[in-house]
Protein: DUF4936 domain-containing protein
Organism: Caldimonas caldifontis
Amino acid sequence: MGTAALPPADRHLNACAVTSATPGSSADPAGTGGARTLFIYYRVASSQAAAARPAVEALQDRLREALPGLQTQLLRRPEEKDGQQTWMEIYSHPQGVSPQAQDRIEAAARELQALCPGPRHVEVFVACAS
């Protein structure tokens, strides 16, 4: 998704939301030089899905407003297992999601605990070097 598809407020950068990702810096301790993208997955009871979806979408709306330039997605596996769905939130930014922005995302997600009581698994990825 390019910045043209984002609302005007989301086209501006915010120092809290981005990192310059200098290889070997504290923002990029592995020295990859890549922009960090967060993939957060968790289970939602199928019986709670109708209530959880608008709650997660509202959370992502607030995060995009608070962290300009942040791009979000909400996905789920197509199948259900044992009355549960697996959902995934994706957070990206053209300059990467900083550790501080990640902390803010994770703190904000605590409000979802009643609808999504299980653990949230957070994975951080960077693009492969070309």
About this structure: The longest helix spans residues 49-66. The beta strands are 37-45, 71-76, 84-92, 121-125.
